[in-house]
Amino acid sequence: MNNLSTIPEDKQLLIVDYLTRSISHADSLELKAWIESDPINQTSFQQYKSSWLLASAKNDKKVGYSQLWERIEEDIEAENNKAQNSTLKSKRIQYLKIAASWLLMVFLGASLSWILLQKTEKIEIKTTEYTVPNGSKSIIKLPDGSVVWLNAGSKLTYNSGFDKNERKVFLSGEGYFSVVSNKEKPFKVVTSDIEVRALGTKFNVKAYPEEKTITTILEEGEIEIQVINGKEKGKNSQLKIIPNEKMVFYKNGNIEAEPIQNKVNVQNVQIINETIRLEEDINTELYTSWKSGEWIIEGISLKCLVPMLERKYNMTINFKDEELKRYKFTGTIQNETVEQFLTALGYTAPIKYNIIRDTINLSIDNNLKKNFERVITTRHE
After folding, report:
1. What is the per-residue pLDDT for 303?
2. At the topology level of CATH, where does 293-375 sit?
């Protein structure tokens, strides 16, 4: 924009009077004639006027600018009455130039602040969150048409603009994903330590914060797993898996610390590095049936099974005898109550139990123990 000094001093006075709506009829005609006399004058006037109007329109707060101009005009008038020679008149004009420049800067500053505030508000990121408490499950349809089943004790979030620039969700807990294909926008599931990328596929991710591992099972399509946290980040950190494979990521980097849950289901095992184990040719139904009406369990130790039961029934389960953790359970859970399940469990392990409010205490029934010696494992998990 042109500087004020490019406009004659007397015309600056007229413009100020015009913008503050205090211009006389005669001065208005004079200003109009000056504007129409030269295209440069028209441009200068329009730029000055546009800056003024922009600041006035965008600023929501009434800060009394007209009052400021009135004070300036009063001071100028007083100075003019005192002006008896050209030196004083020159000072008056200089004073007006400084005042007008200062007030214009105030206007433009307010306008810029308002514009920046508006832009900040426009890019504000909003988050959509789904939380599933223990004792329940949920099905969610995402904006791109993909469907997610969330298991008990899980949380799924995604930011506003999902499917516009990228398809990314954040998972804490367990979710089964049926992803709509879009080669230009890979679907990403971000957990605490790994990121799963897919185009169009069906897979299960289990990433509970309290557990030592994160598991990913692929049913259809192809997915790529990227380690984003931990020892292997940045080296050997990408792994592609194909259907009927299960990737197990160990948060503490100690593969031997956690047992294989379904040994009877595992045909081949590969140790990829210190933090990743790959199980091939698995029965995926054993890991994904939880989302349907029939949860199929095959050869899982009570130690591994109890955390799942706690989330399913929203109860706390305590082992009074550590030896019970080594017994394994095989069966199918449909809509059984916790008491019905514990009764069924009694057919595969010598347990007795008592329930106090939301707590279950499991202990060994010594009278039944001898009938179950054959199912006790020889190694501690």
Report:
1. 93
2. Phage tail protein beta-alpha-beta fold (3.55.50)
